[in-house]
Amino acid sequence: MTTTYDSLIFELSQPDRSGVDLPESDVESVDLSDKFPEHLIRETEAELPEISELQLVRHYTALSNKNYGVDNGFYPLGSCTMKYNPKLNEDVARLEGFSRIHPYQPENTVQGALQLLHELQEDLAVISGMAEVTLQPSAGAQGEWTGLMIAKNYHKHNGENRSKVLIPDSAHGTNPASATVAGFDTVTIPSTKDGLVDVAELKKLVDDDTAALMLTNPNTLGLFEKDIVEIAEIVHEAGGLLYYDGANANAILGKTTPGKMGFDIVHLNLHKTFTTPHGGGGPGAGPVGVTEKLIPYLPVPRIKKVQNHYVLDDKEPLSIGRVKGYYGNFGILVRAYTYVRTMGAEGLQQVSESAVLHANYLKKRLETHYESPFPQTCKHEFVLSGSKQKKLGVRTLDIAKRLLDFGYHPPTIYFPLNVEEGLMIEPTETETKETLDGFADTMIQIAKEIEQDPNIVLDAPHTTIIGRLDETKASRKPVLRVPVTTRNLSNNS
Ligand SMILES: *Cc1c(COP(=O)(O)O)cnc(C)c1O
């Protein structure tokens, strides 16, 4: 099962083997031992692997081959927008003028970089229908927290201490988490059986203690909240603000904006909608846009254009302050800028059309084989239920594992929480019809296997290096250093 180069790098080590050829040191050695506390002084040589350059290359190439990403295959992970990351973005991010500058350089030596940031701010303001944007937050969740801190400071400045944030039950888990970290109490709004915000319930729950309503539209079921204008009125009438979770904005680009829907604060995930790479925890970017009245609360420094000069302005008395070191994840911002500028307004509109078309095409092909709790037209993604298969003793988790045998990354499963045995599928606009058909054929084959020979699915995956993991333990107590199949676990330290 495993390749020769699957071992730990320390096991490959042989004394005096070397992959580097350093010149003789021309610096005199100095004894600094009296400058450090005793317990920090090393008594033995550092234990470093001694291996050749070729061994090192093979070791890391073997590791990278075990990874799965958008560049390897179809990745329909719902609510994650795993679309293709154009390689042009990488070329531009590697240009020396972008990659070799330092955040502490004087303003007048980095005018090009500041211009890029300023223009990206302006582009994202247009795309989101907001008055002004900050690029600082480094993830969607941090954008949410930033937006909620803006809301908090806005209410405080108006002499109000509003404590509640309303969040629909279909929301991404980061919404209640961010609201809690920002010091709010969260109130859950139930969905109707059609998967939309229950407006009657919202009316009951909203009051003069409501700081904000956080909404995702289209929501995580891939459904457009058609009552959004009325929802906005209800929240605004109570003096609350409307927060837009725009992590996956694939379905609205160039079609409509959160601004038009009545939102006051928006975050966008550049690492989802705007083709910057993501996975493995970062780096990402979650810019936040706000309407006119909230501009004074944006983080500092703000990037401004004064005549023909770009400046970093940190003199904003009502600002919530800095939320990230320097000015955000600059390399990610360069990639997103490249994407927006190469696509143009028409290109972005086409993104929405294709993303929505692809999702509806897949949905239609799968609906006769899997329960489809929300039959209406979807936007960029859709949610099926494995409830029919559950009756035959096969769970959604098993279906996800079986997909691995066919080389697909599974969809998001068991989310949102208001769908039994949920399978959330987001194909994105960058896939071909053949890829969509291949995936649909496979899903249909799995549905047939479940009817005919469920053990094939229950025992899956059959072809991966590692079978089923204890997923909770793998995420809470990861053993990252030992390839499980090649090592005797009892020898572990
Ligand atoms: C991904 C996602 C988030 C969180 O974004 P991160 O960058 O992972 O913090 C929030 N809301 C929705 C709907 C998402 O899909």
From TrEMBL:
Residues 34-299 form the Glycine cleavage system P-protein N-terminal domain. Residues 352-452 form the Glycine dehydrogenase C-terminal domain. Its cofactor is pyridoxal 5'-phosphate. GO terms for molecular function: glycine binding; glycine dehydrogenase (decarboxylating) activity; pyridoxal phosphate binding. One of its GO terms (biological process) is glycine decarboxylation via glycine cleavage system. Keywords: Oxidoreductase, Pyridoxal phosphate. The keyword Oxidoreductase applies. GO terms for cellular component: cytosol; glycine cleavage complex. It is an enzyme of class 1 (oxidoreductase). It catalyses: N(6)-[(R)-lipoyl]-L-lysyl-[glycine-cleavage complex H protein] + glycine + H(+) = N(6)-[(R)-S(8)-aminomethyldihydrolipoyl]-L-lysyl-[glycine-cleavage complex H protein] + CO2. Belongs to the GcvP family. C-terminal subunit subfamily. The glycine cleavage system catalyzes the degradation of glycine. The P protein binds the alpha-amino group of glycine through its pyridoxal phosphate cofactor; CO(2) is released and the remaining methylamine moiety is then transferred to the lipoamide cofactor of the H protein. The glycine cleavage system is composed of four proteins: P, T, L and H. In this organism, the P 'protein' is a heterodimer of two subunits. This is Probable glycine dehydrogenase (decarboxylating) subunit 2. It comes from Natronobacillus azotifigens. The lineage of its organism: Bacteria, Bacillati, Bacillota, Bacilli, Bacillales. The gene is gcvPB.
